Amino acid sequence: MAVELTENAAQHVAAMLDKRGHGVGLRLGTRKSGCSGFAYVVEYADAIGDNDQVFECHGVKIVVDSDSLASLEGMEVDYVRSNAINKGFEFRNPNVKDSCGCGESFSV
To answer: What does DSSP say about strands 4-5 and 52-57: parallel, antiparallel, or unpaired?
Structure first.
């Protein structure tokens, strides 16, 4: 299984990388956090390390460290705009068993 971006998410990431002027893709990971256990980490990927898995979707590279892969495998990332003010990434992760009430952390 892979980690995928929707076309909207890929277009957003490509535009942000272009505006930034450098980077190889989007880095996704997890870290221990919150009341449910884990939180998503979203950063620019400036390099690909030996411990990284790379997926490509709609022309954009997604870089995931091997430690986070089990928690993210099969996930789809979308970029949504609910109105002019609220916009951002939405994570559709089939591995999530529970999440906290505020939506900031999850467990697998």
So the answer is: unpaired
Residue 102 pLDDT exceeds 60: no
What distances in angstroms separate CA 92 from CA 33, 40, 51, 89, 108, one per listed residue? 19, 12, 24, 10, 13
pLDDT in tens, 79-99: 998 877 888 999 998 888 777
Is residue 106 a part of any domain in this protein?
Answer: no
Residues whose CB falls within 8 Å of the CB of residue 64, separated by 6 or more in sequence, listed in order: 3, 27, 28, 29, 52, 53, 54, 55, 72
pLDDT single digits (tens) 9-58? 999 999 999 999 999 999 999 888 766 678 889 999 999 999 999 999 99
Query: What's the structural domain count of the chain?
Result: 1
Q: Domain of 29: which CATH number? A: 2.60.300.12
Q: Hunting for tokens 């999440």 — which residue is that?
A: 99
Sign of the Cα torsion 73, 76, 79, 81 reads negative
